[in-house]
Amino acid sequence: MSFYSLTLQHGVPFQPVNIRASRDPLSLIGKILEQNPRSYTKLDDLIEIGRNLVRAKLGSVRDPSSPVEEGAKIGSPNDNQDQQLHESSRRIISMASEAALTEGDFDTAYSYI
User: Fold this and answer.
1) What average pLDDT does range 57-75 have in this prediction?
2) For residue 113, with 0-12 CB atoms within 10 Å meaning exposed, 13-18 middle and 19 or more buried, which class applies?
3) Mean pLDDT, residues 18-45 taken together
4) Contacts for 20 with CB less than 8 Å, ≥ 6 apart
């Protein structure tokens, strides 16, 4: 994350403690995409950042705006982490696609589908 410019509050630069303080650390990747033009082209880097956040068990991976599936079962811790890694990747791809569309890069957005 240190390679990207990130400001969470007006005039206050990002600090590592902000990761732990965030209820949804993956939303920080959305902020990176908003504040860094063409950062959506570094999809592999963004997915790796998201995977590291999941592995560090920092907050929720699920998008707070998405409904919780009824009757969802939690398997073994490894199954749960694998599911969270997959879900974080899907969420980051979605955010990157949206950022590409916002910047008018339709070819890149389409390639992420």
Assistant:
1) 50
2) exposed
3) 90
4) 58
